[in-house]
Amino acid sequence: MTDHAALLSVAREAVAKATGIIRSMTSFSVAAKGDRDMVTDVDLAVEDAVREFLARETPEIGILGEERGHEGNTDLWWALDPVDGTANFARGIPLCGVSLGLVDGLKSTVAAISLPFLDVTYTAAEGQGAYAGEERLEASKATKLSDAIVSIGDFAVGEGAEVKNRVRMALLAELGGRVQRVRFLGSAAIDLAWVAHGKLDASVILANKPWDTMAGVLLVREAGGVVVDSDGGDHTVRSAATIAVGAGLRDEIVAAIARVGA
């Protein structure tokens, strides 16, 4: 049986090490890695350091990192985004974070997200609740879209982006006319952590890259929220989209997504 408490301690230490690196590297280079996509040497330094730490502490567990790919166990593995929100980070916008989730089969069971410039670390373990530091989190209880602040994930880049972004534009119009406010934060880790924290009532991410989402998905669930795929089915690592929402708005958000054909 997986010792979630012990692995949560490892995850906390891993993101603390990552945070120290991010804060210490006051100058860095930026390189293109695809259409309107970038990587900094901070991303690479953080991923390499965290990989080394996790390989030493949990050699039986695989790891998938955004920058270096998957190594080791494919049934039990860490999902790491060394700097989620790289575009924000590269411009000096403090909305970025380190996201580390433990994926066991199809779902995450341990999570740690550190927001280095907002001085908060979010953590969760399956069945043990979600926390910001020592504060136990509770997802939104809102039941009306007109009361909701909803974040939308980044627009697509790369191959097929034009078609994908037509759907995103339709979704923006659909929600923009119905919710209290729409927000684009530029970091899936923050989107999901803030749904867990009740700062956002929902987050609609029409993608599911495990390094971006798996830690935050567990935070939301452990805070009493729900996370589904775009069709309303239960979210797993194989889902096409990541829709996180307070339970009272689940049906309305899923219906809005269905109306735009996402």
Automatic annotation (TrEMBL):
<dbReference type="InterPro" id="IPR000760">
    <property type="entry name" value="Inositol_monophosphatase-like"/>
</dbReference>
<keyword id="KW-0460">Magnesium</keyword>
<keyword id="KW-0479">Metal-binding</keyword>
<keyword id="KW-0378">Hydrolase</keyword>
<dbReference type="Pfam" id="PF00459">
    <property type="entry name" value="Inositol_P"/>
</dbReference>
<feature type="binding site">
    <location>
        <position position="84"/>
    </location>
    <ligand>
        <name>Mg(2+)</name>
    </ligand>
</feature>
<dbReference type="GO" id="GO:0006020">
    <property type="term" value="P:inositol metabolic process"/>
</dbReference>
<feature type="binding site">
    <location>
        <position position="212"/>
    </location>
    <ligand>
        <name>Mg(2+)</name>
    </ligand>
</feature>
<dbReference type="GO" id="GO:0007165">
    <property type="term" value="P:signal transduction"/>
</dbReference>
<dbReference type="GO" id="GO:0008934">
    <property type="term" value="F:inositol monophosphate 1-phosphatase activity"/>
</dbReference>
<protein>
    <submittedName>
        <fullName>Inositol monophosphatase</fullName>
    </submittedName>
</protein>
<feature type="binding site">
    <location>
        <position position="81"/>
    </location>
    <ligand>
        <name>Mg(2+)</name>
    </ligand>
</feature>
<dbReference type="InterPro" id="IPR020583">
    <property type="entry name" value="Inositol_monoP_metal-BS"/>
</dbReference>
<dbReference type="GO" id="GO:0046872">
    <property type="term" value="F:metal ion binding"/>
</dbReference>
<feature type="binding site">
    <location>
        <position position="66"/>
    </location>
    <ligand>
        <name>Mg(2+)</name>
    </ligand>
</feature>
